[in-house]
Design goal:
By secondary structure, the chain is an alpha+beta fold. The chain has one domain (7-157). Helices cover 58% and strands 22% of the residues. It contains 3 helices and 2 strands. The protein has a two-stranded antiparallel sheet. A hairpin with a 2-residue loop joins strand 1 (75-92) and strand 2 (95-111). Helix 2 (45-71) packs across helix 3. It is flat, with a radius of gyration of 21 Å. The termini are far apart.
Length: 158
Amino acid sequence: MLEIDYSKDSGPSTRGEKITYYSFLVLMLLGFSLDIATDYEPGKLAAIAFLVAWIPLTFIHELGHAIAAKLVGWEVKELVVGIGKIMKEFHFGRAKIELRTIPIGGYMLPDYSEKNWGRLKSAFVYFAGPGIELLICLPSILSSASINLRTRMAASLN
């Protein structure tokens, strides 16, 4: 099996790269803040809310893959959230878990020791990431639909 060494991924390492990275980050946050402060609209907070929600959703997504891999009998070697330099590394059982600098993606690396039903198991593990997010969002979607339905029914009665 092909082994890929992701431990060599790195973020900004030289002084110039760090200055550029953090300057860009500060300018983006300053731009968001000034835009909201000068002409506040609740819709403008959507971008910030999206960015804040992205980090736990990425972790939950990768965790969904890992849980599905365990359910089909595969060992989870590694669970990584983010790209760039490793900020925090710890072990959960035999799985190595890494949290990296920029949490825009991730991966879960299983140990494919068993070959029975390989494609079906792979598909189950593949769809488990988005599936767990849908399960988490389902109550809010259903409650929103219920509120919308009640509002329409009340309006039709008047």
